[in-house]
Amino acid sequence: MQTYSACGAVISCQQCPKAVANAIIYASHSRGFHLPAQKCEENIMIFLLEGEVLVNSQEYAGTVLHAGEFILQAIGSKYEILALTDVECVCYRFNQPELFCEERYKYIMKSVTPPLIFTPLKITNELNFFLSASKAYLVEEKICRELLSLKRKELAFILGQYYSDYDLSMLVHSLSRYTSSFEYFVLQNHMKVKTVEELAQLGGYTTTTFRRIFNSVFHKPVYEWMMEKRKESIAYELRYTEATISEICYKYGFESLPHFSNYCKKYFGSSPRGLRSVQSVATEETQTFCEEVG
User: What pTM did the predictor assign?
Assistant: First the structure.
């Protein structure tokens, strides 16, 4: 169905190229859904609207996140999630927090000591109103990059106005832990390039120097690491996202669906559709197990 988009063209909003890489998403999962332990390649804030999930990370070890609470996992951190009930959430993925006051960020970093044990923050009434409105757009796939940019600015305003410096210290100190590191640079930028040389140039390194530093930090050759991350990302998107196979195919630079299918058969032992089927069966088995032990 064709509609007038925010940019004035008569197109389907879901197919608009400006909708690529949306930073705010809505997700729902059944009880038993399991997100295996993985490193964040960007910062992610998880706002739980319904249900309960078990979060396991350095910051939130064995923490149950309840409806009406939210957490932040910073880029480079490692986390794992298990849905204890049917759940709904809105997630905000970002590299740099949009429109957040830099002076306040610096003040919190310098003067506010975060709690020794991190706990989820409560969703205020103002934030809940924002999330409910965002969900209404996202559930119906009313996707527009300009709109979501405004929503990100609104989110930053709400966090700044309705949360104390002490509350925000858990977010600010988590973010700062990773942002000055070489690892942060690699995780933030490796998907933007196709070659090791391009990644080194982006960071202002010679290729030789970049390879040397990379080996000392990640303990493996950079090209091998980039190929592994590409495979992990493809497998993750096929198993745990609702992106179409075509969208995943072209996002990762494959020339055609047959080429993508051959790649999956070579590295995963199954076609893209087969990988999705395996995940569906695994989810059902996990849910059955949870019901049995619950």
Answer: 0.64
